[in-house]
Amino acid sequence: MITLSVRPYTFQFNFNAITSRGALQTKPVYIITLCNEHNVKGIGEVSLLPGLSADDGPELEQTLMQMPRIFQSDCDIEETIAGLQTFPSIKFGLETALIHLKNNGQCYFGNAFTQGAEPVAINGLVWMGTPDEMWHRMEEKVSEKYRCIKMKIGTYHFDDELVVLNRFRQKYGYEIELRADANGAYNAANVNQHLDRLAKLKLHSIEQPVKANNHALMAQVCNNSPIPVALDEELIGISGSDQKEQLLEEIKPAHLVLKPGLLGGFSACEEWIALANKLNIGYWITSSLESNIALTAIAQWSYNFAMPDMFQGLGTGKLYKENFDSQLEICEGNLWFRP
Predict the structure, then answer these.
(1) Which of the four pLDDT bands, split at 50, 70 and 90, describes residue 196?
(2) How confident is the model at residue 74 (pLDDT cuts 50, 70, 90)?
(3) Lesser CB count within 10 Å: N end or C end of the chain?
């Protein structure tokens, strides 16, 4: 007999976290605990991004609050999780908690990373801000010895962002990999011009240059872009292997950005990975502002599935004023697990 409990938390950001969708001050999460008859516990996290998560709405909390009662009825856990396609955040939380429980509440995934023997190479994330703020943040990432830096762009004036990126290339050359994340900030009228100007900086890639759910425009952008395009928000809400393959066949991106917390968990992401390998599409794995609980699980899983020589988008939960204890540590652009 397995019982389930749910507890909500709200985290406060340490800084003004600005994206092209606006500024973030708080982050709501729900911690799921599964407990068996031997009092072994598995912990998972429902990590909601308001305005972005496919299941953002009152139905999510209502469904979550029904879960303890459902689990008291001796439900088939695997079947219950599989049936949560319209609630990818809950599906991720339950799947993670069950994996943890099956591993006796120890690590989520056993591998060289969880043994502390090998790291996961990650990018350093530069949040939006004034040109001076962004430059200072990029300098910090260089001093911390990141070999890949991702800069969020699309809120401030494009020319200002271009100046910062140009300044970086002039000072540090091309040894450090640069990625850009536009979060859908461009449109049909300006996207080609912006990408042509950004291409001179020899960026590794640009994530989601135009808003999601305009497949014809995104396919055109991917076909014409001088910079490899990665799909991010475009993947949210897409479920089922056939629907996923249809999307990739239509748009033909260079890369995928896989966020287990937004896409329905590890099994859903593994479907994307299988299709990416089949269609010769690159990918990397990224957390999506989760607390240290989900971040730890994603990091452990990413070691098993990360593409060789590809930097992952993982951190250490330093975004928030308070967080759960963590065994994750960043050293010179690598994420380590300290058992």
Answers:
(1) very high
(2) confident
(3) N
CATH superfamily entry for domain 120-337:
Enolase-like C-terminal domain (3.20.20.120)
Single out the catalytic residue among 27, 141, 150, 152.
152
Q: What is the pLDDT of residue 19?
A: 62
Specify whether 150 is catalytic: no
Residues with Cβ within 8 Å of residue 29, at least 6 apart in sequence? 8, 9, 10, 11, 45, 46, 47, 48, 290, 291, 294
Is residue 252 annotated as a catalytic residue, yes or no? no
- The class level of CATH for 3-102 reads alpha beta
Joined together, the tokens standing for residue 159 give 């020319």
Task: From the candidates 27, 141, 244, 259, give the one annotated as an active-site residue.
Answer: 259
pLDDT at 17 over 80: no
| H or E segment to which residue 302 belongs | helix 292-305
